[in-house]
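Researcher: I'd like a structural prediction for the single chain below. Treat it as a standalone chain; there are no partners to consider.
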Amino acid sequence: MPVKIRLQRHGRKGYAYYHIVIADSRAPRDGKFIERIGSYNPNTNPATIDLKFEKALYWLQTGAQPTDTTRNILSAEGVLMKKHLLEGVQKGAFDVVEADKRFDAWKASKESSVSKTKEQLAADKQAAAKTRLAVEAEVNKAKAAEVAKKKADAIAAKIEAVVEEAQAEEAPATEEAAE
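Model: Treating it as a single chain, here is the predicted structure.
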């Protein structure tokens, strides 16, 4: 029975997420599977991967073949690196302590690069929000100036109307006084 590590699609149209499963290669994509070992959500930035590391390593060592996308996921999580190091231990190239030390060093560098990426994304998002806020403030200032000008024009028109009315009342009074 050829066993594959592959993705099983879930979610709505245009917003898929995947379960990482161990399945017989003859089974349908979303059909029967042997074991679920994780999930993969490409909709987040960066993509969210939840993986049972030990189970994935076990299945790789027993001969399960990952699909191309799953191979990339397992590589990113370090499962393939750990398998490679354990094969080196079996061949006698180095011992288990050295393998663990190399894996821990690799994992630390990987986590630091991921954290830098997340920080950069957060900083970019914050900068975009500040820019958007500044543009909105400028638009609000322009609207406030326009409203203030309209109010000033309305007040000036009222004053002008009052002055004309007062002059109109004064004019007949001065004509009557002159007669």
